[in-house]
Design brief:
The structure is a single chain. With 60 residues, this protein is mostly beta strands. The strands form 2 sheets. Strands 1-6-5-4 form a 4-stranded antiparallel beta sheet, with no helix packed on it. The chain is built from no helices and 7 strands. The protein has one domain. Bound molecules: zinc ion.
Amino acid sequence: MAEVETKKESYFKCKKCGDEIYWNTHKRVIYCKCDALGVDGCEDYVRLLGDEKNREEIMK
Ligand SMILES: [Zn+2]
């Protein structure tokens, strides 16, 4: 589990299935289609679940 600082338009993309998850999940954990990447974020924090090598941060 890692805490990251993030900007408002960040998405986290799973490199395995290509799913993109918006950083702000309103304190619910949202997983990508293949469950390799989970995001749990709100205004105060963003936590990332899963293996770091399976995800990349993208800006839109
Ligand atoms: Zn995935």
